[in-house]
Specification:
Layout (H helix, E strand, L loop, with lengths): L1 H40 L3 H5 L2 E9 L2 E4 H13 L3 E14 L5 E13 L5 E15 L2 E11 L5
Parallel strand pairs: 1-6
Antiparallel strand pairs: 1-2, 3-4, 4-5, 5-6
């Protein structure tokens, strides 16, 4: 019986150590998500794109593109006077994989963007970000953004 109890105690201690490790990873990840969203909202192009892995892919409005094309598009928009006026995230859900180095974050986004000519567009969307810890930093390796049709 004492061997059985010893095994239970060892197992519980192991789970506690894993939980502590994941809680620090989770805190780092949530900080990265918040900083990523803040950089986008504040039109801080270089900080925003610093959160993407070099080979990341993004999917917007029915088309997939690599992150370098998206970076060029946003840099041109900012240079022409466009930008983000509003970007509010809600219902953030984060799933950290057991390995502790990959996570999936999903949320709803309410966005208003200003085009170079001053016109604005608003959208409500669902966003999925796949994060991976690369060289000690959380990076987005894939982002999928899908508009939600307005309710009639």
């Amino acid at each position: 019986m004492s061997k059985f109890l010893s095994c239970i105690v060892i197992a519980l201690i192991s789970f506690s150590a894993v939980a502590e490790h994941h809680s620090s990873e989770d805190a780092d990840l949530h900080a990265a998500i918040k900083a990523f969203d803040s950089a986008y909202t504040n039109n801080d192009v270089e900080s925003y794109f610093g959160f993407y892995a070099d080979d990341a892919t993004v999917y917007f409005y029915g088309a997939r593109q690599d992150v370098s094309a998206y970076h060029e598009e946003w840099t041109a928009l900012m240079a022409a006077g466009g930008g983000v006026e509003k970007n509010e995230m809600s219902d953030l859900q984060v799933q950290l994989m057991p390995s502790g180095d990959v996570a999936i974050a999903t949320s709803f986004i309410d966005n208003r963007t200003r085009a170079a000519d001053g016109t604005t567009s608003t959208s409500r969307a669902f966003e999925t970000d796949v994060w991976q810890k690369i060289d000690g930093e959380w990076k987005i390796i894939s982002l999928h953004y899908s508009d939600i049709a307005p309710e009639e």
